[in-house]
């Protein structure tokens, strides 16, 4: 008779993963590295067993400057065959992949303390009370391009909400301390607009997602999470100067490439910015030459909300109210029509309450 072992609880799984990480760290000290990086301006201490895994995180996140106490600890190891790391060491803790896929379900624990995430190439669990995330890469070759550009995006959304920074699906650039939020659905042109602004000298925070903080009634700050830009291959045709820096997986079906804003313009990466305006790019050749058109708040809400709702369960009714408050607090404009990307930054700057001419365009007295 075969006896079925009981499923691992979230707390037990977290403990066993921690034990395995400690064992593997001791067994492979040459493969262990530490990287202090920044997420939404908070210091995160990352410990990685596996050189390529560490490189992915060093690429995706800015290093943290300063010695603030860590807000989060991340411990991960890589079981991909090319690492030479023996995954059998984890078997003493009952952590073989087949058993884990039977035991672990992506989601939150009943108490809400733990966030489990099992994907094609990942297994990790986040303890929101410690706070600490621990886990392993089951096979790095199963990573999608998105997971390389923005690792751990799903569990990190729970941690960001916990510290009061729910994730908003929008891009963000800044001009002389004033942030311009770029909203809209996939394919609307958020990444194109963000990259065009970065090229023109704007500060860069994100082309896709930010941490949104309410600092006072009607006052909002956006925080950078990653420093990557996920650009469509078609979009890169407008930026031939950046094609050499683009990284693409030929097996990826998204037809996307990764650009690292810090590789392009390291001095233009910004951690946070108050939001002073919202722009909604709308690709429609019927509007002719590109122009800014004031948008009603209800139009902006209708445009942005469908892109945010898939962030559930880390996005709820309170965030709908927060987005509504933001759209009431700052000017909102459509960016209609078509124009070469080099012509767009000047329009973006005009969306600010006090228009600021982009760098390189100012006339000396």
Name the features.
2 domains; about 375 residues; 9-stranded mixed β-sheet; Rossmann fold
Q: Helical percent range?
A: 25-40%
Beginning-to-end CA distance, first to last residue: 90 Å
In the predicted model, the low-confidence regions spanning at least 5 consecutive residues are: none
Q: At the third CATH level, what is the topology name of the largest domain? A: Rossmann fold
Strand content: 25-35%
Basic shape: globular
Q: Count all strands and give the number.
A: 19
CATH class of the largest domain, please? Alpha Beta
Molecular structure report:
This protein is an alpha+beta fold and 365 residues long. It has 2 domains: 10-162, no CATH class; 167-350, Rossmann fold. Helices cover 26% and strands 29% of the residues. It contains 10 helices and 19 strands. It has helices at residues 10-27, 51-60, 97-103, 145-149, 153-162, 190-199, 261-264, 297-308, 317-329, 344-350, and strands spanning 32-39, 42-49, 62-63, 72-78, 107-108, 114-118, 122-127, 132-137, 167-169, 171-175, 178-182, 203-206, 209-216, 219-224, 228-232, 256-260, 272-282, 291-294, 332-336. Strands 9, 10, 11, 12, 13, 14, 17, 18 and 19 form a 9-stranded mixed β-sheet that branches. Strand 6 (114-118) and strand 7 form a beta hairpin. It starts with 9 loop residues before the first helix and ends in a 15-residue tail after the last helix. The model has no long low-confidence stretch (mean pLDDT 88).
């Amino acid at each position: 008779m075969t006896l079925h072992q009981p499923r691992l609880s979230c707390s037990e799984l977290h403990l066993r993963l921690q034990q395995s990480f400690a064992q593997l760290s001791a067994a492979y000290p040459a493969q262990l590295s530490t990287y202090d990086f920044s997420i939404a301006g908070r210091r995160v201490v990352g410990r990685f067993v596996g050189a390529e895994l560490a490189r992915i995180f060093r690429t995706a996140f800015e290093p943290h400057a300063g010695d603030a106490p860590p807000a989060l600890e991340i411990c991960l190891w890589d079981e991909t065959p090319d690492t030479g790391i023996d995954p059998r060491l984890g078997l003493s803790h009952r952590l073989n992949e087949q058993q884990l896929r039977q035991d672990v379900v992506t989601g939150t624990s009943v108490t809400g303390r733990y966030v489990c995430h099992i994907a094609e190439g990942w297994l990790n669990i986040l303890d929101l009370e410690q706070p600490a995330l621990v886990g392993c890469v089951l096979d790095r070759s199963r990573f999608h391009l998105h997971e390389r550009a923005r690792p751990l995006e799903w569990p990190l959304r729970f941690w960001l909400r916990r510290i009061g920074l729910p994730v908003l699906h929008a891009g963000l650039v800044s001009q002389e301390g004033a942030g311009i939020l770029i909203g809209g659905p996939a394919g609307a042109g958020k990444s194109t607009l963000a990259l065009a602004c970065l090229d023109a000298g704007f500060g860069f925070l994100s082309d896709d997602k930010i941490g949104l903080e309410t600092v006072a009634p009607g006052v909002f700050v956006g925080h950078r999470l990653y420093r990557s830009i996920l650009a469509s291959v078609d979009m890169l045709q407008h930026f031939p100067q950046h094609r050499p820096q683009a990284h693409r997986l030929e097996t990826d079906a998204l037809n996307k490439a990764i650009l690292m804003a810090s590789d392009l313009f390291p001095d233009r990466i910004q951690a946070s910015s108050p939001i002073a305006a919202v722009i909604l790019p709308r690709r429609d050749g019927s509007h002719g030459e590109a122009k800014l058109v004031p948008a009603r708040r209800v139009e902006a809400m209708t445009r942005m909300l469908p892109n945010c709702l898939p962030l559930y369960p880390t996005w709820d009714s309170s965030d709908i109210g927060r987005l509504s408050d933001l759209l009431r607090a700052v000017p909102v404009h459509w960016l209609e029509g078509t124009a070469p990307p080099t012509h767009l930054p000047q329009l973006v700057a005009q969306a600010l309450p006090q228009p600021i001419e982009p760098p390189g365009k100012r006339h000396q007295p």
